Amino acid sequence: MKTLWAKNALLENGWESSVQIDIENGKIISLKSNAPQKGYLANTLIPAPSNLHSHTFQRAMAGMTEAKVNPTDSFWTWRKLMYQFLDVLTPEDIETIASYAMMEMAETGFAAVAEFHYIHNGKNGVRYSNPAEMTDRIAAAGTETGIGLTHLPVLYSQGGIDGRKLEGGQKRFQTNISDIEHQVTKFSSQVAFTDWNVGVAPHSLRAVSQKELAEVVTLFPQKPIHIHIAEQTAEVDEIKGGYGATPVEWLFNNHEVNNRWCLIHSTHLTDIETRSIAKSKAIVGLCPITESSLGDGIFNGVIFSKEKGAYGFGTDSNIQIDLRAEMRTFEYSQRLKHKARAVLATETKSTGRILHEQANKSSATALGRNSGKIAIGYLADIAELPLGNPDLEGLKNDMALDAWIFSPDSTSVENLWSAGRHIVKSRSHINKEIITKKYMKVIKKLRSDL
């Protein structure tokens, strides 16, 4: 058993002082407020949320797609550059990049990640002798970093709703139902940590057939389902033209959408669709930094919040891995859209408190992870706010949380525990030196190859 003691801690029912937290087998087994100092002494402890959407391999592309290559640069021109980048990635590269990205996630305050993993094959779609080669690489990265992991092997079988074949870089994504079954089974049989989970990810309504989507949903009735939806107007137009309904409208008309669904982006929604998602209890996976980078658009956050919708945050393309920046960017996007301040705050809870609670509760649901709060029986996914940070000096409780999220200091967390594993100590990941060294070697090689 390990024991943490915090001067202040954000518990299920609010802030408490002098809190003793006892942890065994990764779970919180006892909580006591106004307790004498004992065990590992911390200042301010908060629940550490999960990153609910990531493509770790894209971390190595950060900063490489900012030149204008088309008069109307967009998501679609960016995607072509991404396909070119794919050509030079080996399984070893992908493992190294994933380890580095996961390390950064932990240092910024994420205790776990949902890896939306869609590179399955070699160059030109050549199959590996081990069909789960890339799944094994993601698992190895998770093991090296100690981060919580929900692995989401992606079903990707077509280039559009007309069923056209995949071309070029897309061939590395190609999978069928049998492939997904195999990867789910393989990952489940060799999890490094008992808190790990596995789900499924039909890539989008463009990339799988209606029949395949129905099959994969039925085949894994208890697993989390993550899907990109309504991210781009061109996608909305394609689905509407082929299926006679918008992506969200079609999905709700043909499937029972509930809280095991995580609808990634959901950028281009009608007000009716926004309310329908909120009512369904499905999680909306927001990735504000990536959505800003790609010029996707702005989510209907105010309507969704008023309808008590559930949303969490992901780092998606991983061009900037920063939990605080994702939350901040989302709030600021709503301020710009509505020309107001503190848009998501309520009369009883500050902006930071609302964002942090949503990040925790919704990501736990999306990952199928028993986390999201510091409470007995829950996984010990816990972060300590940074020490010696001038922006937090003299502040406590919600004001300290707000200052941490909205202040300019780049320090993320002082310490972080993922299911009780102490993987960030004194602001650095415990394996940072070796992970960074390997990543630098890979980056140097990749950039010489491009």
Tell me briefly what this model is:
This protein is α/β, with parallel strands linked by helices. 37% of the residues lie in helices and 20% in strands.
Task: Write structural notes for this entry.
The protein has helices at 75-86, 91-108, 133-145, 177-189, 210-219, 233-243, 247-254, 271-280, 288-293, 301-306, 323-338, 351-367, 397-406, 432-449, and strands at residues 2-11, 14-24, 27-32, 40-47, 50-54, 112-117, 148-155, 197-198, 201-202, 225-229, 261-265, 283-286, 310-313, 382-384, 415-418, 421-425, 428-429. It has one domain (47-367): Metal-dependent hydrolases (TIM Barrel). It has an eight-stranded mixed sheet with strand order 3-2-1-4-14-15-16-17, with helices on one face. With 450 residues, it is an alpha/beta fold. The model has no long low-confidence stretch (mean pLDDT 94). The N and C termini lie far apart (50 Å). The protein contains 14 helices and 17 strands. Helix content is 37%, strand content 20%.
Number of strands: 17
Q: Provide the structure class.
A: alpha/beta
Could you describe the largest sheet, including whether it forms a barrel?
8 strands, mixed
CATH class: Alpha Beta
How far the N terminus sits from the C terminus, by CA atoms, comes to 50 Å
Q: Average pLDDT value?
A: 94
The whole-angstrom Rg is 21 Å
Percentage of helical residues? 25-40%
CATH topology value: TIM Barrel
CATH superfamily: Metal-dependent hydrolases
Kindly report the spatial arrangement of strands forming the biggest sheet.
3-2-1-4-14-15-16-17
